[in-house]
Amino acid sequence: MQSFSELEKWVDEVKNLCQPDSIHFVTGDKAEEKSFFEELVRDQKAIQLNPLLRPNSYAFFSDPSDVARVEKRTFIASNKKEDAGPTNNWIEPQKLKKIMTKLYKGSMKGRTMYVIPYVMGPIDAPISKIGIEITDSLYVVVNMIKMTRTGTQVLDKIKNETPFYIGLHSIGAPKKNGVIDSMWPCAKMQKKYIAHFPDEKLIWSYGSGYGGNALLGKKCLALRIASKIAYDEGWMAEHMLILKLTNPDLESKYILGAFPSACGKTNLSMLIPTIPGWKVETIGDDIAWIWMKEDGKLYAINPEKGFFGVAKGTSYRSNPNAMKAIEKNTIFTNVALTDDLDVWWEGIDKEKPKHLKDWQLHNYDISCTYPAAHPNSRFTVEATESPVLANEWEDPNGVLISAILIGGRRPSTIPLVHEALSWKHGVFMGSMMGSEITAATISDQIGMVRRDPFAMLPFIGYHVGDYLQHWIDMGQKANQEFLPKIYYVNWFRKNDDGQFMWPGFGENSRVLKWIFERVDQKASAKLTPIGYVPDRDSIDLSNLDVSEKDIEALTEIDVNLWFDEVKSIRAYYKTIGNKCPIDLVNELNQLEFRLKNYVQ
Ligand SMILES: Nc1nc2c(ncn2[C@@H]2O[C@H](COP(=O)(O)OP(=O)(O)OP(=O)(O)O)[C@@H](O)[C@H]2O)c(=O)[nH]1
Ligand SMILES: O=C([O-])CC(=O)C(=O)O
Ligand SMILES: [Mn+2]
User: Fold this and answer.
1) Can you tell me which residues form the catalytic site (predicted)?
2) What is the pLDDT of residues 264-316, one digit of tens each?
3) Which residues are annotated as a binding site for substrate?
């Protein structure tokens, strides 16, 4: 959409369709946010945490059917089926609109309809995008306020004819007269639809109130729709963290990391190095928008303004900076509650109290054997609460990218780190990336390995083959001298007892240091069929508590396992069909050739 009058017309249409009791335009000011939380507490939708322990913080508890993104109910309704590709659910757009229009009819009865003007990206960055979300969920509103730049200044931009993207969201639970609302009203699973119309750049979401299903700026706009816009316009929207790494000589580089949901982006983006003199600061923890400037170099911005992080497993030991960020002004979803109204989850430092309320607010004591917090429990907090936010985090010029990490949960085969031989080989590595399915998505296959190219499988708004070709093309267009190097990292390799061999978290700084020094051509490496791996002297393992045997295993290349991998990638490329880039098939053939000729 292009103009304020179009916006007014759309708001009016939605009002007539969804029939809310009232309409509220979100202004984004502090007094308004405060009154929203007061209303949420008064209506028993949220619990205010103990202000002495966790000031200005609130806990929400979702319906058990509404705890994560639902990929089965997520649709890319492109005009042509072919454009959605083999990795997306597709429905003919007119048919889907018909189904959803029926559902939206009267869906906001008894509720307020909120209009949220927001911008993804610093307000003046060249690739920032304006969005308008209409929602009937106040939970969504308070989360959007923390996660995006929201408010009246965005409407001013629209009045000045800046184009914008619209998204309609309803929890799909009209209030019935005389019936008391539940704490988290939403629709049944079969009625949830997270729909994208990429040809119109339109988002319709119905029936779920959770995270990436409902905060439409995040996965729906900043990834699925933006990935399609980026493909058409020649830039990239990626599921990546952005960090700033500074060495003891105070030289800095910016590094991106694509890991699937619940695979360590937030943790890496704010880690505290265990090696002296090094520093990591955060630019973003989930999404990066990447573009090429006239100098042929690649730059990135974080389109978000906050963190929607996994709570479970977060502790002062694993991620002290996240723990500090969430000491106040935080929204928690599906965590457990202590008797004195603070939060608790599995993996937090504090010992398990004798009594808790679990994430469904049931009494929970030591006799309970199931987890008290949901594995996908989350915190929402503004980036500015982080003690390690980089100064340039909202520089509209973006930051220059030196290296791109990709990775996931692979219990075997993939070593701790290896460097791509070239950009194309790096794209090959990204294309074959696999990971165990985690609790960030509702699935009956949690724990199984699936291919997840550049951690974007659930977020590519078009054909995966075109997406991979776009990656190759971006590298070809860039100034070759300044192309970021690509690294495959794996913090999750396991030993025969099923234990992680690499301590991870702060110790990952050792790998970051090697990468930093590789970019500067200071660290050495061993050339192997799969790429460059660190040799023993080039990676800093001083004062590290890992056995010789495990270090050996972490960097070992098991040729037989790699032959299995090649076979499996070949089968996977078949599923991409004739749009699978020929360059990637060549890379696969070359990998097989190098493996056959490898003498260890
Ligand atoms: N073993 C191990 N676990 C890790 C490491 N880094 C993160 N984790 C665990 O992985 C889980 C998810 O980590 P996050 O950093 O929240 O993952 P994310 O990629 O930001 O997840 P999304 O927000 O879903 O995109 C948490 O339970 C962490 O404790 C690591 O280096 N080693
Ligand atoms: O989108 C969500 O609900 C949370 C998230 O960051 C992810 O799953 O990658
Ligand atoms: Mn994510």
Assistant:
1) 263
2) 999 999 999 999 999 999 999 999 999 999 999 999 999 999 999 999 999 99
3) 69, 210-212, 261, 376-378
The answer to whether position 51 is within a domain reads: no
Q: How confident is the model at residue 484 (pLDDT cuts 50, 70, 90)?
A: very high
491 CB within 6 A, ligand 1: yes
**422, burial (CB in 10 Å: exposed 0-12, middle 13-18, buried 19+):** middle
Q: Which amino acid is at 131?
A: G
Question: Do 407 and 320 fall within a single domain?
Answer: no
| Closest C-alpha to ligand 2, atom 7 | 261
The predicted structure's pLDDT at residue 454: 98
Q: Which residues make Cβ contacts (< 8 Å) with residue 480, sequence separation at least 6?
A: none
Nearest residue by C-alpha to atom 16 in ligand 1: 310
Answer yes or no: is the C-beta of 261 below 6 A from any ligand 2 atom.
Answer: yes
The count of domains in the chain is 3
Whose tokens are 């004062």? That residue is: 543
Q: Residue count of the chain, please give it.
A: 600
Domain with residue 367: its CATH number is 2.170.8.10
Q: What is the DSSP string of 286-345?
A: S-EEEEE-TTS-EEEE---SEEEEE-TT--TTT-HHHHHHTTSS-EEES-EEETTS-EE-
pLDDT at res. 116: 98
- 40 vs 289: CA distance, rounded Å: 33
ipTM reported for the complex surpasses 0.90: yes
CA distances from 483 to 127, 296, 400 (A): 20, 9, 10
The verdict on whether 368 is a catalytic residue reads: no
In a domain, 54, yes or no: no
Question: Could you tell me if 296 and 214 lie in one domain?
Answer: no
Same domain, 358 and 486: no
> In this predicted model, which residue has the larger pLDDT, 192 or 438?
192
Which residues fall within 8 angstroms of residue 231, CB to CB, at 6 or more apart? Answer: 462, 466, 467, 470
Out of 320, 351, 385, pick the residue that ends a domain. Answer: 385
Residue 378 CB less than 6 A away from ligand 2: no
pLDDT of 461 above 90 = yes
Q: Which of 18, 186, 220, 263 is catalytic?
A: 263
Domain boundary among 234, 257, 276: 234
**Confidence at residue 437, expressed as pLDDT on a 0 to 100 scale:** 82
Residue 52 within any structural domain of the chain: no
Examine the domain organization and report whether 204 and 173 are in the same domain. Answer: yes
Structural domain includes residue 59: no
Q: Where are the alpha helices (DSSP H) in 81-202?
A: 81-84, 93-104, 138-147, 152-159
Residues 346 and 404 in one domain: no
**Which domain covers residue 252, as residue numbers?**
238-305+390-596
Minimum CA distance residue for ligand 1 atom 13: 264
